[in-house]
Task: inverse folding
């Protein structure tokens, strides 16, 4: 693995966190990273809800069956999209743009020694409704994913899932 890409290979889903806050400056760095992602026609149709309140994090976990790590995470960033802002009003562009921002945030966590896990909400309607309710998200804004973030309580090895079978050269 190329050492220059350590932050990418070290980005793993981590689901156990230390009881330690993430400083505001680091949260700002993560948001800066997210909003430096590419977006179709540079429409930047994304919004980010920073959640630190313990009760609110627990309430979010209540409606996300595979998001129970939120109960110990000191921070979540909820990535939402505004369909009216997306290029051509296309949901696909909205999801691609927001996913690019999400991955940038995850790589930034890795580069800064933080730990994170991507929790999908979209397209599961019950999760979308739950997040709308807990976070008072307006009807025209789509919650897409939750990022649980903290300091790693367990070591997770760097890796790639490189597969030659997934690579096609020149033609399929
Ligand atoms: C769209 C999406 C949704 C995901 N949702 C969850 C989730 O709800 N709960 C969870 O624990 N992990 C979730 N993950 C993390 C994946 O399980 C994880 O990325 C995958 O197993 C690969 O492991 P790695 O991230 O350590 O490389 C999600 C990842 C993606 C891209």
Result:
């Amino acid at each position: 693995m190329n050492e220059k890409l350590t932050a990418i290979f070290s980005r793993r889903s981590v689901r156990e966190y230390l009881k330690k806050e993430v400083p505001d400056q680091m949260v700002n760095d993560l948001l800066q990273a997210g909003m430096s992602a590419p977006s179709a026609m540079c429409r930047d149709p994304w919004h980010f809800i920073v959640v630190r309140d313990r009760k609110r994090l627990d309430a979010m976990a209540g409606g996300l069956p595979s998001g129970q790590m939120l109960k110990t995470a000191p921070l979540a960033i909820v990535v939402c999209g505004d369909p009216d802002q997306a290029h051509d009003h296309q949901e696909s562009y909205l999801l691609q743009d927001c996913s690019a921002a999400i991955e940038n945030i995850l790589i930034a966590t890795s580069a800064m020694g933080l730990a994170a896990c991507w929790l999908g909400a979209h397209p599961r309607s019950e999760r979308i409704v739950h997040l709308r309710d807990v976070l008072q998200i307006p009807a025209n804004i789509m919650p897409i994913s939750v990022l649980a973030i903290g300091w790693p309580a367990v070591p997770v090895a760097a890796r790639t899932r490189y597969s030659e079978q997934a690579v096609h050269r020149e033609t399929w």
About this structure: The helical segments are 6-9, 24-34, 54-62, 91-111, 125-135. The chain has a mean pLDDT of 98. The chain is about 35% helix and 15% strand.
